UniProtKB/TrEMBL annotation:
GO terms for molecular function: hydrolase activity, acting on carbon-nitrogen (but not peptide) bonds. The keyword Manganese does not apply. Gene3D superfamilies: Metal-dependent hydrolases, Urease, subunit C, domain 1. Residues 53-440 form the Amidohydrolase-related domain. InterPro entries: Amidohydro-rel, Metal-dep_hydrolase_composite, Metal_Hydrolase, MTA/SAH_deaminase. It holds the Pfam family Amidohydro_1. Belongs to the metallo-dependent hydrolases superfamily. ATZ/TRZ family. It comes from the Bacteria. This is Amidohydrolase family protein. The keyword Protein transport does not apply. Keywords: Hydrolase.
């Protein structure tokens, strides 16, 4: 197969004009000019064209594989802690439908790899549900990193036992069952689930990672077991939601006397195979530690705005050499998982680190594109050339039509291709997608899935199950609980140890 482009982005720093890549089996065999490669391989199938941009398929390094967003389920976003109350009353699709929809939403926008980080992956059907999801992703053709995830503390809220003690009897009766669980059994079952999945499903197209849901929801003993298991499996990647909100940081200061980042370091969890999801409420000391340990972060630009977390200080992190990757997190700006819009949002949000005209240069477009390609690849444990189109790399490519980028009505040739992609490309420009050397989308049509049949199955499911989680009794109990919930989190903020922001956007006094 030849994949042709007026421009071929081999990696964010290497662009070749009027070029092509030659694919043999599932690898990039050669990169060169279109004329030379066509002369050598006249009978090969051709994807793309003279006016296309060919680029490495983008990589979403943090998704929950929900398929439908909360917005589509009729639930608006709010503070993350409030959102957990709201989300408990919305419909959830079966794992196979969730994964299939997530694959569709990603592939059609040019994402050829997805990291599905789970949530509440426990109970007697945990393995069955995991295999349902993995099976749907495999059918779609997308490259998959899969991390089952659980929490063995702080499952309902931070310092949950103390919170229950503040409640009146009727609400205590409602909340207590959600805060009573066997932490050791949860950890034991998770470790068994990981080992089973790693043995049965880890492959060049599917990586099974460790994914303790969040840093404040994992006990020290559990973290130690995960650390040792990852080391035993050739430094399998570990992905952890960390310091997403100020309340999480405050809890860490109250509980450990230090930041969660520093606590993870004391446990020996920080390392080159560890990625911290969100990483919003970091101190300068945290960034220094992350950089020193070679730890990565995922940046969820729109998600962090949707759930009112704040803005991750990626400008400061990247300045210190931290590997920052793209994470869409099912909560994109346009509610469609468009990775180009998320990269653009990352670029925009990182442009406000200070006011010195000479000392605070914006991140370059090559740096932003790296977040969705080579940086994201580094967090997932695939091939060392994953995220590029260099010879020997997995043949994962997105082909984009340039008409709207270049001819609406005109764009100067002076604009470099990385700048064009960051500032003008959209997921809807993607025409063809190749994953592992196989054409998954051709002329905007899936070759691996019947999307309309999938949509019909989803519509039929929600028609029957949408109202079931939101019973009147549960809705009333959650409404009564909310003032107590707010007061508890407000009190926790008295332990917060940071107040000076990385990004100054205005002033009130």
């Amino acid at each position: 197969m030849l994949i042709r482009g007026g421009w071929v982005v081999v990696d964010p720093q290497t662009i070749i004009k009027d070029a092509a890549i030659h694919v043999i089996d599932n690898r990039v065999a050669e990169v060169g000019t279109w004329s030379a490669l066509r002369e050598r391989y006249p009978d090969d199938e051709v994807v793309g064209g003279a006016t296309s941009i060919v680029m490495p398929g983008l990589i979403d390094a943090h998704s929950h594989g929900r398929g439908l967003s909360p917005i589509q389920k009729g639930v608006l976003y709010d503070y993350l802690e409030n959102a957990f109350l709201d989300w408990s009353s919305m419909v959830y699709l079966p794992n196979d439908l969730c994964a299939a929809l997530s694959a569709v939403r990603h592939l059609r926008m040019g994402c050829t790899s997805i990291h599905h980080t789970g949530w509440n992956d426990e109970g007697p059907k945990a393995l069955e549900n995991a295999h349902l999801a993995i099976g749907s992703y495999r059918t779609s053709g997308i490259r998959l990193a899969y991390s089952p995830a659980v929490r063995d503390r702080n499952r309902f809220c931070i310092d949950e036992e103390g919170f229950v003690d503040t409640l009146p009897p009727e609400l205590r009766e409602f909340v207590t069952p959600m805060t009573r669980y066997d932490a050791k059994a949860i950890a034991d079952d998770y470790m068994n689930l990981f080992e089973t999945l790693h043995a049965s499903d880890n492959s060049p197209m599917t990586r099974v990672l460790h994914g303790p849901s969040w840093a404040h929801g994992t006990t020290d003993d559990f973290f130690t077991r995960i650390r040792d298991s990852a080391a035993a499996h050739d430094n399998t990647p570990i992905h952890i939601h960390t310091l997403q909100t100020p309340h999480q940081r405050a809890w860490s200061i109250k509980t450990f006397g230090c930041s969660l980042v520093e606590h993870l370091d004391r446990l020996g969890v920080l390392g080159t195979n560890t990625t911290l999801g969100h990483a919003v409420w970091l101190s300068e000391r945290d960034i220094e530690l992350i950089a020193a340990r070679g730890t990565s972060t995922t940046h969820h630009a729109s998600c962090n705005l949707h759930v009112r977390n704040g803005i991750s200080p990626i400008w400061h992190m990247m300045k210190q050499g931290v590997n920052v990757a793209l994470g869409i997190d099912d909560k994109s700006l346009n509610d469609d998982d468009d990775p180009f819009m998320e990269l653009r949002m990352s670029a925009v949000l990182s442009r406000v680190p200070g006011f010195d005209l000479g000392e605070t240069p914006a991140l370059t477009s090559a740096q932003i594109l790296s977040m969705g390609t080579v940086n994201a690849a580094r967090t997932l444990g695939f091939d060392r050339l994953h995220g590029t189109l260099q010879p020997g790399a997995p043949a994962d490519a997105a082909i984009l039509d340039t008409a709207s980028m270049l001819h609406d009505p005109w764009t100067s040739d002076r604009l470099a291709i990385p700048d064009l992609l960051v500032w003008r490309a959209k997921g809807q420009d993607v025409t063809d997608v190749v994953v592992d050397g196989k054409i998954v989308i051709r002329n905007r049509r899936f070759t691996t899935m019947d999307v309309e049949a999938l949509y019909a199955e989803v519509r039929d499911y929600v028609k029957h199950y949408e109202a079931k989680p939101a019973s009147p009794e549960r809705t009333a109990a959650l409404a009564a609980l909310r003032p107590h919930f707010h007061a508890w989190h407000r009190k926790m903020l008295t332990y917060l140890d940071v107040s000076e922001p990385f990004y100054r956007v205005n002033g009130r006094a």
